[in-house]
Amino acid sequence: MAKYDLTSTKVGFIGGGNMASAIGAGLIHKGILNADNVWVSARTDRSLGFWNGLGAHGTLRNGEVIDNCNIIFLAMKPHMLDDALQGIRATMSKENSNTLFVSVLVGVSLDTLACKLKSIVKYPRIIRCMPNTSMMVGEGITVYCSMSTMDQDEDMVETMFSYIGITEKVPESLMNSIGGLSGSGPAYAYLVIEALADGAVKMGVPRPMATKFAAQVLVGAGKMVLETGRHPGQLKDEVCSPGGTTIEGVHAMERGQVRASMMNAVEAAVKKSNELASIIK
Q: In whole angstroms, what is the distance from residue 258 CA to residue 188 CA?
C-alpha cells in the first residue's frame, strides 16, 4: 500500500451527519487532512455547526463541494441519494472528471451508484466503503470494494482509513454481512458497556467508575484477542476458574441467551441492509 501526504488533498462530504463527522473529525484531529481543504454540504445551517467548529467549509449547495474537491464522500442517508444528486446537478458549475466518489451508503451497490452518478460524471470512479463511527478516536474498521480502474484510488482511500483504524478490501458480496458486525457493532458494544455498568451500580459501585471500568473491560478484552491471536473461547476459559465467580456470571449470561441475542443482532442488521439494497435501485 502506497502512502500519501493528504494534507493538501481536497476532500468533500455530501451529507455532514454522524458517519461523515467520524471520518472527517478523525482525519482532521490526527493532522491527516487540513481542515481548510475540507468542504461539507448539508440541508440546514444547524447541521454545519460541527464542521465550522473544525475549521472546514460548510455550504448548503452540494455542487460547491463537487466544484472544490477531488475526493467526494457520499454520506447522506441512502434514500436521499437521488435528491442529493439533483442538488449537485443544479448547483455545480462544471463536470469534474477528476473526481473520486467514496460511498458510505448502506446497501447501495457499486452498479447502482455507477448508474446514478453518470448523471453528473460521464465515467465515475467509485469506491464503496463500510466504515464505523469509532474512526473518530482512531479505532475504526473500514471494509471497501472498488469500481475504479486507477490503482492509486484504492491506495489513497486505504491509506486514509488506515490512519483512523484498520481497513481491508473485500468482495462486494460480503459488504452487507460485514456491515452487520463492524458497522453496527459499536452500538452493540455500547449496550454491553451500559449493561455491565448498570450491574456494577446495582452492586454499589459509583456510576462514573462503573462506566469507566466497563468500557476498559471491552478495550482490554479486544486487545487480548487481537494481540495474542488466541480464540475468544480460550481466553474466556482462562478467566473462568473452577467453581469461581466468573463461571457463575457466564452461566447467568447463557441463561439470558446473550450469545444468541448478539448473533440475532448481526443477522437483523444484515437483513435490513439487504432490504435497503432491494429498494434503492
A: 11
Among 158, 175, 74, residue whose Cα is nearest residue 121:
74
Q: What whole-number distance in Å separates Cα of residue 169 and Cα of residue 154?
A: 9
Four-residue CA torsion sign, 98, 104, 109, 113: negative
Report the half-sphere exposure of 204 (CA within 13 A, side-chain side): 0
Are 1 and 28 spatial neighbours (Cβ–Cβ below 8 Å)?
no
Distance CA 271, CA 275 (A): 6
Buried b (16+ CB within 10 A) or exposed e, 196-205: bbeebeeeee
With 0.85 as the threshold, say if the pTM is over it: yes
One-letter amino acid for residue 259 of the chain: R
Nearest one of 47, 55, 48, 1 to 31, comparing CA atoms: 55
Q: Measure the N-to-C terminal CA separation of the chain; round to a whole number of Å.
A: 33
Q: Which of 164, 166, 158 is nearest to 4 (CA)?
A: 158
Place of cell 441519494: 81
Instruction: Tell me the pLDDT tens digit for each residue of 144-167.
Output: 999 876 778 999 899 999 999 999
Whole-angstrom distance, CA of residue 77 vs CA of residue 54: 22
pLDDT in tens, 9-20: 999 999 999 999
